[in-house]
Amino acid sequence: MLLITGGSGFVGQNLAGYFGPRRQTVATYLTHAPVDTASAQSVRLDVRDAEAVFSVFERVLPEVVIHAAGNKNLVFCEEHPDEAHRINALGTRNVARACREFGASMIYLSTDLVFGCVEGGYREDDVPRPALAYGRSKLEGERLALEELNDLAVCRSGGIFGRDSPLLKWLSAEVEAGRSVECFVDVFNTPTYVENLAEMMDAVIRKRLVGVYHTVGRERVSRFEFFRSYADTFGLDASLLSPVSSAGLKEKLLLQPDASLSAERTAERLGVAFNSVAEGFVRLKASGGV
Ligand SMILES: NC(=O)c1ccc[n+]([C@@H]2O[C@H](COP(=O)([O-])OP(=O)(O)OC[C@H]3O[C@@H](n4cnc5c(N)ncnc54)[C@H](OP(=O)(O)O)[C@@H]3O)[C@@H](O)[C@H]2O)c1
Question: How far is the centre of ligand 1, averaged over its atoms, from the C-alpha of 235 (Å)?
């Protein structure tokens, strides 16, 4: 049995959609409607509640757990660092403890923002120095889970896009309404197509890998390049995308100049093709779009 925490979120729903037909899957939710499908059932879970975590494990008896529940709202985490710590760090420890108790393997979905995000191109063994409360809470989650488990797999990802992607839905609505969208030319990451992330996690599970992996797309792009690639693939009016500098807005918008990850080592270990941005968009279009 596979347990996916955060199964009602954007990433978790997509992971449940990928794994559901392949293995018996239970996905958790906290505040949003259950996501029962033919292939994945759902159960309510608050990871801050250690007893509730144990009781879900008692019912589900998972062999593998993908821990994708968390709060990734940068502003919320910056303004409420204690609550971010409770959800992203202590919640992760609760899940790791239950994995230890019930003998389940754990894959923790972490983030590129564990790094300082200035130079970019961070490798799996670079020392993380997060600049934001969100990144600190996720990094603490990695550390606390590692204290509990010696067979933990950490999958750091970033800029995840795919079906029901909030960012792409917003972009589509703006462009379709004929509104111009300012896109930063100096904010970079390595965007990750969510199905491709699922394939990478699948490889981690099948090969029983442990340690830290950079499960991202294979291409470092600016926000402007990312949006333009989307517009090109989906036939949107790219002239509405206006390239701008983020100068003067970085602090206000908590922008991270370069969150790109190097994933060469991970790609070698996983043996999965890592998609470029355009490849991800082509796959997304073929699967029915956002
Ligand atoms: N999106 C990205 O680009 C990205 C990149 C790297 C890493 N990640 C990581 O991926 C995870 C999911 O991201 P997402 O984009 O899918 O976010 P999301 O759409 O906001 O989903 C968050 C999920 O976590 C659940 N959740 C929140 N607080 C919880 C709690 N206390 N106990 C149990 N479940 C809780 C939510 O449940 P309800 O909605 O039902 O309340 C939802 O299922 C996060 O941990 C994030 O750090 C995301």
Answer: 30
pTM value? 0.97
Residue 203 to residue 269: CA distance in whole angstroms: 9
pLDDT of res. 49: 98
The structure tokens listed for 114 are 């564990």
Could you tell me the residue range of the domain that residue 72 belongs to? 2-161+193-217
Please indicate whether residue 135, judged by its CB atom, sits closer than 6 Å to ligand 1: no
12 lines ligand 1 (CB under 6 A): yes
pLDDT tens column, 8-26: 999 999 999 999 999 999 9
118 lies in a domain? yes
C-alpha 97 to ligand 1 mean position (Å):
20
Residue 262 lies in a domain: no
In a domain, 233, yes or no: no
The CATH code of the domain that includes 18 is 3.40.50.720
pLDDT in tens, 118-169: 999 999 999 999 999 999 999 999 999 999 999 999 999 999 999 999 999 9
Number of separate domains in the chain: 1
From 72, 112, 155, 193, the mutation candidate for ligand 1 (largest count of ligand atoms within 8 A of CB) is: 72
The answer to whether residue 253 is domain-embedded is no
C-alpha of residue 237 to centroid of ligand 1, in Å: 31
